[in-house]
């Protein structure tokens, strides 16, 4: 079984796997439209994490993990809790295209996608509003800023040829807001 990750799974799968491949799926755009009240936020201040939006001309880069034998049941049980129960995601099968083209055919992979029908779905907002929400959110897995920056770093390092305007616009908005926060915190400490 192959499992495609396009958010925190790219750097922290949390399950044992046999192999991994960087690549992409077609027909989806990655969007910070899913709320998170556990891993990267709280009930009071939900974080923002990514989901996929159907978009016929787009592709989303990430990592596919191959799980075999006893790894299958354990990884699916773990992901069901992490993504479906706590995250509000549904599963789909997609065609994954490995980055390294060694004559490989696309691989059928399982992917978790949050839909607008789940209660944690936040939907679209401006890059500045999403960045502002990310800055103030933190959960059991860490600060929401870490989630955004690790995802942007993954894209730069592993997929430098790929564009993800939505992701990088939010990162840019976050960086433009952060100096104001540091200045405010320093000013408060001095008084």
UniProtKB/TrEMBL annotation:
Write down the InterPro entries for this protein, in alphabetical order.
Answer: ChaC, GGCT-like, GGCT-like_sf
Q: Which SUPFAM superfamilies match?
A: Gamma-glutamyl cyclotransferase-like
* A Gene Ontology BP annotation from the UniProt entry: Notch signaling pathway
Under catalytic activity, the entry for this protein gives: glutathione = L-cysteinylglycine + 5-oxo-L-proline
Q: What class of enzyme is it?
A: lyase
Where does the source fall among the domains of life? Eukaryota
Q: Name one GO cellular component term.
A: Golgi apparatus
What EC identifiers does the entry list?
4.3.2.7
Indicate where this protein resides in the cell. Cytoplasm, Cytosol; Golgi apparatus, trans-Golgi network
Pfam families per UniProt: ChaC
Q: Which GO terms describe its molecular function?
A: gamma-glutamylcyclotransferase activity; glutathione specific gamma-glutamylcyclotransferase activity; transferase activity
Role noted for this protein: Catalyzes the cleavage of glutathione into 5-oxo-L-proline and a Cys-Gly dipeptide. Acts specifically on glutathione, but not on other gamma-glutamyl peptides. Glutathione depletion is an important factor for apoptosis initiation and execution. Acts as a pro-apoptotic component of the unfolded protein response pathway by mediating the pro-apoptotic effects of the ATF4-ATF3-DDIT3/CHOP cascade.
Q: Which family does it belong to?
A: Belongs to the gamma-glutamylcyclotransferase family. ChaC subfamily.
Q: What is the protein's name according to its record?
A: Gamma-glutamylcyclotransferase
**Native species of this protein?**
Bucco capensis (collared puffbird)
- The protein's gene is named Chac1
């Amino acid at each position: 079984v192959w499992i495609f990750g396009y958010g925190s799974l790219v750097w922290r799968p949390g399950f044992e796997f046999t192999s991994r491949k960087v690549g992409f799926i077609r027909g989806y755009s990655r969007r910070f439209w899913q709320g998170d009240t556990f891993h990267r936020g709280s009930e009071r201040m939900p974080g923002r994490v990514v989901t996929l939006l159907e978009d016929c001309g787009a592709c989303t880069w990430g990592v596919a993990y191959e799980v075999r034998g006893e790894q299958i049941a354990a990884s699916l049980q773990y992901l069901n809790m992490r993504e479906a129960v706590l995250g509000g995601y549904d599963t789909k099968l997609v065609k994954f295209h490995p980055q390294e083209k060694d004559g490989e055919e696309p691989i059928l992979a399982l992917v978790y996608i949050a839909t607008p029908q789940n209660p944690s779905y936040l939907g679209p907002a401006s890059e500045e509003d999403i960045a502002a929400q990310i800055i103030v959110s933190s959960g059991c897995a860490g600060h929401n800023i870490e989630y955004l920056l690790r995802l942007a770093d993954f894209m730069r390092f592993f997929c430098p040829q790929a564009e993800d305007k939505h992701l990088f616009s939010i990162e840019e908005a976050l960086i433009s807001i952060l100096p104001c926060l540091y200045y405010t915190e320093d000013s408060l400490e001095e008084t």
